[in-house]
Amino acid sequence: MKRRTALSAEPRGRLRVVQDTLPHPRELVPREDSVQITCALSREAAEFFRLEAAQTKLPVHRLLRRVLEAYASQCSGSEDAAKRVD
């Protein structure tokens, strides 16, 4: 059996102060300018998106957002929105 190291609350070796260089969590992921909309779907379409979301393990609203962004970028010719990951 391996020898166990006794741990103590006292510091080991020389200590040095390290500057906090990490950005705030809000600065890590910039928020996009978004607009909230409401739409009505048929039962069949809603059920389809629920099943697809369950298979991909994504929330339904995120899946719908990706589908709509991909469609908009395809129609406008811009591929930035289609490549974006939430």
What is the string of SSEs from the N terminus onward?
Answer: HHHH
What is the gyration radius calculated from CA atoms? 24 Å
Beta-strand content estimate: under 5%
Range of helix content:
40-55%
Assembly status: single chain
Through-space gap between termini: 47 Å
Residue windows where pLDDT falls under 50 for at least 5 positions: none
- The assigned structural class equals mainly alpha
- Count the E strands: 0
Q: Main β-sheet: number of strands, strand sense, barrel status?
A: none
Task: Describe the 3D structure.
There is one protein chain. The protein is an all-alpha fold and 86 residues long. The protein has a domain at 36-83. It has 4 helices and no strands. The protein has helices spanning 25-28, 43-56, 60-76, 80-83. It is elongated, with a radius of gyration of 24 Å. The relative contact order is 0.07. The mean pLDDT is 83.
Topology readout:
Layout: H1 25-28, H2 43-56, H3 60-76, H4 80-83
List keywords for this structure.
mainly alpha, 45% helix, 86 residues
Question: What's a concise summary of this model?
Answer:
The protein has 86 residues and is mostly helical.
